[in-house]
Amino acid sequence: MSDLPEVKPPVVTPVRAVIALCLIAPFVAMLWVGSYTKTDPAFIGIPFFYWYQLLWVPLSTLLTVVAYQLWRRDQRARASVKGGAEA
Predict the structure, then answer these.
(1) For residues 63 and 46, what is the distance between their CA atoms, to the nearest angstrom?
(2) Cα-based torsion angle of the residue sequence 84, 16, 72, 68 in order, rounded to the nearest 10 degrees
(3) What pLDDT digit, counting tens, does each position of 65-86 carry?
(4) Which residue(s) pair with 63 in the sheet?
(5) Which tens digit of pLDDT belongs to each residue from 9-34?
(6) Which of 22, 37, 69, 83 is deepest in the core (most CB within 10 A)?
(7) Can you name the residues that pair with 46 across neighbouring β-strands?
(8) How confident is the model over 35-45, as pLDDT tens digits?
(9) Residue 6: left if φ>0, alpha if ψ -120 to 50, beta else—which one?
(10) What is the DSSP letter of 34?
(11) Is the pLDDT at 1 greater than 60, yes or no?
């Protein structure tokens, strides 16, 4: 037995900060209504107000997938540091 304390990885890491940004960005974009309450620029006849919101549907999906992949990678890395205790 060793008298050395167990070293745990930090809870807040750069990867986890990126994950948080990926998940928070769609909320901020949609809740900041003043940034998109206008009609110009129109896109194929659709006012900005509508196409901006619709653009965030695939963007949100993409950001969620990125966050999920980063989370899985982070969890695998943490499990390997622990010696494979968690899968």
Answers:
(1) 24
(2) 170
(3) 999 999 999 999 888 877 655 4
(4) none
(5) 678 889 999 999 999 999 999 999 99
(6) 22
(7) 43
(8) 889 999 999 99
(9) beta
(10) G
(11) no
For 65, the token pair is 């997938």
Question: What's the CA gap between 26 and 83, in Å, rounded?
Answer: 36
Token pair of 75 as six digits: 């969890």
* Sole residue written with tokens 């620029």: 41
Q: Name 18's Cβ contacts closer than 8 Å, sequence gap at least 6.
A: 67, 70
How many helices (H) does the chain have, and how many strands (E)?
2, 0
Question: pTM for this one?
Answer: 0.78
What b/e sequence results for 53-72 when a residue is b if at least 16 CB atoms lie within 10 Å of its CB, and e otherwise? eeebeeebeebeeebeeeee
